[in-house]
Amino acid sequence: MLPEFLMQAATKVKTALMLKDEKLVIAESCTGGLLATLLTSLPGISDFFCGSAVVYRWDTKMKWLGVQPETLEKYTDVSCETAREMALGVLNQTPEASLAASISGHLGPNAPKHQDGLICIAIARRRSPDLHSPPELMTVESFECDTLIDELQLAGNFSPELTLRQRRQLAAAFQLLQMILNTLEQ
Question: How far apart are CA 54 and CA 105, in angstroms?
Answer without folding.
Answer: 13
